[in-house]
Amino acid sequence: MDPVIIVGAGPVGLALSLALAAQGVPSVVLDEGVGKEEPRPARTAVLRADMAAMVERLGCTTLRDEGVRWVGWRSMRRRQLTRHTPLDLGLSGTEEWAEDPDAPALPAAPLHIPQHALARGLRDAIAHQKLVRLVTEARLDTIEQDRDGVVAHTRGPDGTWWRGSHLVGCDGARSTVRKLLGIRFPGRTAVERHAVAALRTELPWPGEALLHRQPPWRGGGEEVIARPLPDGVWRIDWLLPPRGELVTPDALVTRIRETLAGWCDGVTPPYELIDTGVHTLHQRLARRWRVDRVLLAGDAAHLLGAVGTQGLDEGLRDVDNLAWKLAHTWHHGASERLLDSYQSERRTAVASRLRAADQSLPALRGGGGLRTYFPGTARHDVLLTDGHVGRGPLGAPPAYPHSPLAPPSAAGQTPVGTPTGAPVEDVRVTAPDGTTVRLRDRLGQGRLLVLLVAPGTGVWDQQHWRSAGMMPRLEEAVRALPAKAEVLVTEAYPGAPAHAVLLVRPDGHLVASFAGVRPEELYAAADAARGGSATAEAEPETGAETGTETGARKGTGRGTGKGAGKGAEKGTPASAAAAAALFHRR
Fold it and tell me: Which end of the chain has fewer beta carbons closer than 10 Å to its terminal beta carbon, N or C?
């Protein structure tokens, strides 16, 4: 089987290659650059807790070394503190059950990291991964498809043809893949502009982020955001008018001094200016995310980032959604429904995020009444804060309630605290080897998770509870499922009755929950989650033959014959092991 070709070596492309490798799928990453990230401390990424956990599972160590989790979020208006939100750092141990089900849940702390540090950590992880080959100075100029795979041509020191099972364009806002496919990318330009500075100083709220609307000092503008980084560094963003106002170095220094003085009782504290820039935010959404064996992810598929939405975080959610579906297709074949569900789920979720930002912008930036756009929401800072800390319509993790992979309704289903299609809670679970871990630690391995809610099992030895009660029947039902699955046990799950059984996708979204062990209904739900049988549908003609979107053969017009026999340069690997040997042959 040919490897997956990934075009683009930013954080999304690098993360996708590692996520596929974790599930035994080889990939070739085509990097247009020279393989190094330019250090830009003012260009940072904010990752929600679940995406930060996913990146750590992929082996990226820089999140802990060079990122920081905020301990709180402050909102100010003029001179008044309007909102203070403590954040959950998620530092509790896993040895005992410590959650209080009656305590109000705090928002999980986002992780803030320079983007070059994130990319470097992912590259370091790839250096230890045999199933990923990273090719530098490889600029894509041709994509062609047939019934069995994709052929791509790159320009560089040596023009090369590549053969892959699928190709994923992770090549940014100016995506060559998207252009070769002829996919439209409509939206809005320059929705917001920010002057940005990274500087080292001391501010009065260490470890907390601040959103300051209408600061009272001259030059503060409409809004200023300060977000901490490690080693006393802060990223500060000033919202600029949509048009005009060039940001000169002198003007930016003046902004910095006035802002720091405004926050520090009128006295500008010592500071070291590290990096500056102007960040322009666009909102765009590709019309299609899949043309047969070619898919889009990250900025190639969507641009967002206004009023607290996080573009890179959404790109990593594309990875989380797509990787297990590509891996299942690569190993077992799959129905068209499985890969189609990637576009259906992710494009709908991002469109909803963009729509929420569009609806809120007139109220937040133009002074209109927020109740007009979000009934029941009384204050601007509530919506903005929720967007930044990962709650509400601008920030909450997406759910896929209308997914093509949703199972049919069944009499044995029972509701739990998580709606169907939403991300499951990160509860403590007991794994098959008897260890106690977080549920999130078992995700991303290409298998379904079957979670039994069994109060009291925490005090039993594994040799007892594995052979007692419902467990033998449940394990027998799981062995009969049409997709690989793992049984986990938890003491409690929010809103779930004792002996409930939850079926969870490899990306952590709830498929269904049942009252007890129901083998036939569990099988039907698992079958739906994998998209049904690969032989249940006739394979459609490819875009190269049908001309979908303008055809996947758009490009230089070269035929596939020249590259079809080459595989990854030299031939088509017959297995993941053969691919690994091929990729590391220098």
Answer: C
